[in-house]
Amino acid sequence: FFFQAEDGIRDYKVTGVQTCALPIWKPQTPWLSQDGLDLYLCADSPAGRGVFHAHRSHVDLMFDPAVLAQRTSELVASPSATSDGLQVAYVIPSQRQVRSLIRSENSEAFRSGPPLIFEEESTARWPRAFLTPDARQLLVFSTEPAPHQLRTARRRGDSAEFAFTGPTRPAPANAPCLSADGSRWYWLAGNRLMKAFRRDTDNPFEQ
Q1: What is the value of pTM for the model shown?
Q2: Residue whose C-alpha is closest to residue 181's, from 62, 81, 56
Q3: How many angstroms separate the CA atoms of 204 and 111, rounded?
Q4: Which of 19, 51, 85, 146 has the least CB density, counted as fewest CB within 10 Å?
Q5: What is the pLDDT of residue 44?
Q6: Distance separating the N- and C-terminal Cα atoms of the chain
Q7: pLDDT tens across 67-125, in order?
Q8: Rounded to an integer, what distance in angstroms lies between the CA atom of residue 112 and that of residue 14?
Q9: b/e 49-83 (16+ beta carbons within 10 angstroms → b)
């Protein structure tokens, strides 16, 4: 598993302490691909602030140095990728926007993609947002209409844009994170790691 440290992201999964994505500071909301080979996070660095991507060729190896995939002026959070690794979504909490990065091949660098969803007439913050592996659903955490709410958005046909659907549901308050396969939520409750599961994207999460 991974956790945030002052000098990067630490990996205790296989080979002991590993550090990736240096030199960066203030690493936030790391997200690991399902195969364990790609790591996405938001951070600051001498190259700028934004979304970073690090890759490794095997889970027993250390990650290559992280690359600044998207420079941003605003604080951003919770990057997540599709199962094919060709699209990444990330959220701008203060602007209530989820934006994307895209590439045509895994060997290519990411470039700016279309905005996925945004909301202008609101005072809410969106501290987290996650894209499901099939790129058909977005799960957005919002501070309104009440603190710690989960809103579901689905893609509009073949369009790149998403629209909110269904009811707003209560959500975990502390550091929620979606698994890479989109089936489980993880969050912290005191000193315990909690989990909620769903059978598929048409069903709610059950603790």
Answers
A1: 0.85
A2: 81
A3: 33
A4: 146
A5: 84
A6: 21
A7: 899 999 999 999 999 999 999 999 999 999 999 999 999 999 999 999 999 998 888 88
A8: 33
A9: bbbbbbbbeeeeeebeebebbbeeeebbbbbbbbb
CB 113 within 8 A of CB 160: yes
Q: What is the 3-state secondary structure (H, E, C) of the chain?
A: CEEEECCEEEECCCCCCCEECCCCEEEEEEEECCCCCEEEEEEECCCCCEEEEEECCCCCCCCCCCEEEEECCCCCEEEEECCCCCEEEEEEHHHCEEEEEECCCCCCCCEECCCCEECCCCCCCCCEEEECCCCCEEEEEECCCCCCEEEEEEECCCCCCEEEEEEEEECCCCCCEECCCCCEEEEEECCEEEEEECCCCCCCCEC
In this structure, the chain runs to a length of 207
- Quote the pLDDT of residue 136: 92
Query: What distance in Å separates the CA atoms of residue 33 and residue 149, rounded to the nearest whole number?
Result: 25
At 125-181, the pLDDT tens digits run: 899 999 999 999 999 998 876 677 889 999 988 888 999 997 888 877 666 888 888
Distance CA 137, CA 15 (A): 34
The CA distances from residue 130 to 65, 80, 87, 124, in Å, are 24, 6, 12, 17
